[in-house]
Amino acid sequence: MSNRTPIIAGNWKMYKTMAEAAAYVNEFLGLVADASGVEIVLCPSYTSLAEVRRLTAGSNVKVAAQNMHFEAEGAFTGEVSPPMLKEIGIDDVILGHSERREYYNENDGDLARKVVVALESGFRPILCCGETDDEREVGNTEAKLEGQLVNGLAGIEASRLPSIVIAYEPIWAIGTGKTATPQIAQETSSFIRGTLAQKFGDAAEQVRILYGGSVKPGNVDELMAERDIDGALVGGASLAAADFARIVNFQ
Ligand code: PEP
Predict the structure, then answer these.
(1) Which residue is closest in CA terms to ligand 1's atom 1?
(2) Neighbours of 13 (CB within 10 A)
(3) DSSP assignment string, 211-236
(4) pLDDT digit string, tens, across residues 197-239
(5) Ligand 1, atom 2: nearest CA belongs to which residue?
(6) The pTM is what?
């Protein structure tokens, strides 16, 4: 185990009304009250963010947004800005989730701007990357990841790198029940760290690399045992408080 504190983040996507979110938090806080040596992050949808932030205040659970615009304000219907999230006490933000890239055409150029603005505005970005099934099949995984990392982090200096979290999420494993084997997840995370080291030097050792893709209570322990996996970004299995608490309490 490295000296990088693990992060277990639950991405609720477009699930849970505010009432459902509140009921979850009330159950979840008790289940993870004794968890130590791990950062716990919940990522509710925008309508529940402020309430979940309020309910978790003073606890060991942090709250992150699932996306953020790069402008502070403007005519961007449907978007949410950094100051709006700061106002309600949000410190972490997921950027470039594959669903945002696929359905909302977010590209590496947008993400490079978002990463810079997130850091300047005092957020910790959780930048997602990952390859499709086809890209892995034809041997393009490394080229895809390298492109996403180099372009998405284009505006970043090495000194800022440790404030960024990378989530490696193979698209073929998201919501499919098909988890990457610990060996594949480790090999790819190690490649990611190596790519960061080439661009940023020693700072790469301090970066937390999360694995995401059908993480469940039954597979989290073996994934977390791998050297370059510093946590998990969990979708489906974060929706039930007991399951997510078991993942947080990985062994
Ligand atoms: C995700 O959406 O980030 C994710 C990893 O989803 P799931 O755990 O459901 O595969």
Answers:
(1) 235
(2) 17
(3) EESS--TTTHHHHHTSTT--EEEESG
(4) 999 999 999 999 999 999 999 999 999 999 999 999 999 999 9
(5) 235
(6) 0.97
In the reported structure, the alpha carbon of residue 75 is separated from the centroid of ligand 1 by a whole-number distance in angstroms of 31
All structural domains of the chain: 7-248 (3.20.20.70)
Give the position, in ligand 1's atom list, of the atom nearest the Cα of 169: 5
Q: What is the pLDDT of residues 113-130, one digit of tens each?
A: 999 999 999 999 999 999
Pocket (CB within 6 angstroms of ligand 1):
11, 169, 174-175, 212-215, 233-237
| Cα–Cα distance measured from residue 118 to residue 155, given in angstroms and rounded to the nearest whole number | 12
- Which atom of ligand 1 is found nearest the CA of 237? 8
Atom 6 of ligand 1, residue of closest alpha carbon: 235
